[in-house]
Design brief:
7-stranded antiparallel β-sheet; alpha/beta; globular
Amino acid sequence: MYESKRTLTNNLTLLTDLYQLTMMNGYQIKGLDSKRAVFDIFYRGGGGYSYAIAAGLEQAIDYIQNLHFDDSDIEYLRSQNIFGEDFLEKLRNFRFTGDIKAVEEGTMIFPYEPILTVSAPLFEAQLVETALLCFINHQTLIATKAARLRECTKNKISEFGLRRAQGPDAGIYGARAAYIGGCRTTSNVVAGKLFDIPITGTHSHSWVMSFDTELEAFETYASIYPDKCLLLVDTYDTLKSGVPNAIKVFDKLKAEGHQPIGIRLDSGDLAYLSRKARVMLDEAGHKDCLIFATNDIDEQILLALNQQDAKIDVYGIGTKLITSYTNASLGGVYKLSALEENGVMLPKIKVSNSHEKTTNPGIKKVIRIYKDGKAQADLICLEEETFDTSKPLTIFHPENTYKKKTFENYEIKELMVPIFKNGELVYKMPSLKEIAAHEDESIGEFFPEYRRVINTQEYKVDLSKALWDLKQELLNKSN
């Protein structure tokens, strides 16, 4: 039995921005390199997705475990004539020795909540910023897009985006993220091999055009794949030619003891064609044959097809999924929240004229509040805070503080878990199937109004009183 590898084996240590290295060099020169620092990854909400599905942690783990500067890395950096030999020698002996905690992949998250937190010497914490953002931003973006697409239909969706992806890595890891978000199959063979994702597909229009007639093309394909026969029926005329020819082939397959899969529509009015094709297939005795549809499908099209009673069983979604069409970036950032001073971790805040860009200071955690099995609100709080669920808990809006909510008879769950401790991996990475099952469970904890893609109800994400007070204190000091 084939065992998936789960990741590409590349040395990604130089997957960073130059300014990370120049800052690290400066920290060393000024004797700041060993100061402990805490950085949070989170995404901002302005104009982006109202919720997200955390993804990319497995690749982040692999990156941290394999961090090292090899001889060619050192030689390349030396050739830039920017760094001294002391710095290059420190890079040669570089290993990550810090702590990382993170939200598990497949968890539904919201703007400004820490997704991943790094606590490490400043020299180390600075280096990993770019790569961690790359992994988390991209896969979380695609997993979220997949979840939104799935939210728009009760039918199955499959990821078909490799040919339209912005490069091989985007296609490969996009397929992984799409699986987490709800696409349980992919057309991407290398992603199937790496991550053990079921692969699926049929033939293209060129197959049909390579034969003298459409019927001959269908018959030939069916003879080669009698138990996996899925026919693309829109090369010439879907209802006058494609579906009737498919029915002839399906009749023959069933007479020989085989079970055809169905037909695929790739153009035209998908709602109308699917309804007509469904009637034709049913009347011919093929009620068990499925109708697949492709053709630049997105959330709006799915909602429209639902309204028009489209008879589509499975959607293959490519471009609009793999590129996160209409929302090109998650907008995740990596911000300093605490820095060691004389052996004490002091909270840090970035202040901006825009409240969206003003950060939450200190070492934090996120708790999710549940009542009757449903998520009610999230609370970003300081790491040392504890909550007694036998007592009422009142939360308030961080800007409009008059908006309050008190919970009784509630439960709480901390979202972030330890990943690395003193540079050692302490987290057992679940399988991709387990991550997908966790995503199903996590997203199912939320009422539909928080998941819908149009007029989404705002989910409560508040700051604890202690964190809110600390933030106000630091803001007042900055004036």
